[in-house]
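Appendix B. Chain record.
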Amino acid sequence: MPENSVARSAFRYSLMLLLSGCALVAAVAGVNALVDPFDMYRLVRIEGFNAYKPAIYNRVRLHKAFELRRVRPQTIILGTSRSHVGLRCAHEDLTRLDEACYNLAYDGATTQEMFAYLRHAHAIQPLHHVVLGLDSYLLSAAPSFTRPGFDPLILRDAATPAWWRAITGDLRLLASLDTLRASIATVLSQKWPEPSWFAPDGQRLGEVFFHRDGESFMRDGPRAYFDEIDRLEARLQTQAATPGDARRSPAAVQPDANGSSFAYIGHIVDFCRAQGIDLRIFISPSHMHQLEIAAAAGALLMIEDGKRALTHLLAEDALLHPFQPPVPLIDFSGYSSITAEALPPVGSHDEMRYYWDSSHFKELVGDYVLERLFGVTAAARDVPGDFGMPLSEDTLASVLAAQRIAQLAYRQRFPEEVAALRAMVRSKRDTGAPLISASLAIR
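Structure tokens predicted for this chain:
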């Protein structure tokens, strides 16, 4: 066979392979776009085919990144699972802003991720208001990081053209075999749909989530579930504790360029200032069992140092912007009539009024938080006066002193519970007991 004939045959064969590959990729992308397992495009919604989308519950970071394109909010809520389940965009103080709102908080969010999603949201639609919920452990000099499921290639920012994100994000996902597997699973799961705990505004609906069939909250009872989360927190705290962590200077958690968790909080503040966004910050109100566990693990002074550093950061920001209102900071994490709610008896199936477990507060508490942040109290709700203390460099010392007094009162009121929590921390530290089910790690 002549040499040029061999070359032509090889070329035709390569071209056929290329066209076949392109056709296969196009077919995969078409199926994924039609089934839409992550609820990215909503081209069609057919009962019994793709209406129920279970994949989004395990890919919340992905789902919310695309939901921002649909909702195009001007107000967002950033935070961890506490804000995800506890804060509702339907609250009067947010609806009165008369603009689209989206709860962009999600389970296990880090400050690095929050900063990335803030820029993503602002690149889609300029933001006017941001509510930032910070858990105490985020006020840390520890390096921030991103968790599995975080995909920077789908997130927009001012420096990256939208068309490039469409290639690196949308097209890549549509052509992915992982997405195809999710599409197949979506179609096969249509016979067994479960109630959706995702609200259209991004909130995780506690009344649905915690009351699902088979959940330990329902099976074993709210008190047993509360105790289970306590055990998880004790293990997390003892894992995090290292020699020398009990005392740290405020300088150890100052924002800098090292990528610490605290540094990204500073980036969020700077970004909102630069873009003219109204930012309001709160420290989240976990139940006092969480604070007592932290104290037993030797982390209480670290938490106080984090608050000192945060108030100092905001004071410096205010000096740099003397003609603009200071960024408000309200601390809900201390001892109060809300956070010190008494637990149901052991074995009881009675629910608590304010908490799902020691980490996650209910919507009523979230409503109190928003009313304190925005300075409006609904007539139907009387926010307890001891819940939510404004923090500034002027008030910090008195607030911390008052909290130490309240801590002593709490320990005198619940001595057996406090002793049990301390014993739990000691046992976790001594035995190195393995973590309980990771499905409960929804901090």
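Further analysis of this model is presented in Appendix C.
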